Amino acid sequence: MKTLQLVAISLLLLPLLALAQQGAANPLSSDARAAWEGVRNNVTRAAEKMPEESYAFKPVPEVRSFGQLVGHVADAQYMICAAAKGVARPDVQVEKTKTTKADLVAALKESNAFCEGAFADLTDVKAAETVKMFGRERTRLAVLNMNTSHDNEHYGNMVTYMRIKGLVPPSSEPRPAPKAK
Questions:
Q1: Largest CA distance in the chain
Q2: Which residues pair with 131 in a beta bridge?
Q3: Is residue 18, in this structure, part of any structural domain at all?
Q4: Residue 6 within any structural domain of the chain
Q5: Is the dihedral of CA 166, 66, 46, 97 positive or negative?
Q6: Most buried among 23, 26, 67, 92, using CB within 10 Å?
Q7: Structure pTM?
Q8: Residues 148, 81: contact at Cβ < 8 Å?
Q9: Which residue(s) pair with 146 in the sheet?
């Protein structure tokens, strides 16, 4: 009887084991993608949440405006993700050419889509391949992590601007309560 129960339990667990192995096949690239997706979502939601009239806001004259930050993130994503993909940087100058919220949010989303391509077929083996970035060889994974780090750095700036303007940044918004079962 115990043998039959053990066989039944094993048969029920086999599909779960197969799913776990698929996710574990590329843990480094999967984790890198998840980290970028988190900050990408926060930056995009912050850009969408900040009112149009606050896009020109600068806490002090020596720093970028909120809108310039959005444009800078978009430009940097094109540069860094192009290096990770091993392709030429697209000839896009968002920070210097876009000023309206609508144009900047659209350009940010386009740069996000461009970076999605860097993760689309990324495996841990491909992540270990080297590409040129800032004149030296780096792994694709290091380059993509540099993008995530850069996005996080400027999301921190955006959070400060939003707080000064009395807004709650996306990463601090209350989470919905879990649904009752």
A1: 78
A2: 138
A3: no
A4: no
A5: positive
A6: 67
A7: 0.84
A8: no
A9: none
Predicted confidence at residue 26, as pLDDT, reads: 94
Confidence of residue 19 (pLDDT cuts 50, 70, 90): very low
What CATH number should be reported for the domain holding residue 68?
Answer: 1.20.120.450
- Copy the structure tokens of residue 72: 């800078």
Residue ranges making up the domain that contains 71:
27-168
**Would you tell me how many other CB atoms lie within 10 Å of the CB of residue 47?**
25
Question: How many structural domains comprise the chain?
Answer: 1
User: How many Å apart are CA 55 and CA 57, to the nearest integer?
Assistant: 6
Please, what is the average pLDDT of the chain? Answer: 89
Residues 166/45, Cβ–Cβ less than 8 Å: no
Which of 125, 157, 128, 120 lies closest to 36, judged by CA?
Answer: 120
pLDDT at residue number 180:
77
Sequence-distant (≥ 6) Cβ neighbours of residue 86 within 8 angstroms: 131
| pLDDT at residue number 179 | 83
| Residue 175, in any domain of the structure | no
Beta strands, E only, 56-171: 130-133, 136-139
State how far the Cα of 171 lies from the Cα of 38, in Å rounded to an integer: 9
Contact assessment for residue 54 and residue 65, using Cβ atoms and an 8 Å cutoff: no
Q: Which of 170, 146, 144, 162 is nearest to 69 (CA)?
A: 162
Query: Is residue 22 situated within a structural domain?
Result: no
Strand ranges for 74-157 from DSSP E: 130-133, 136-139
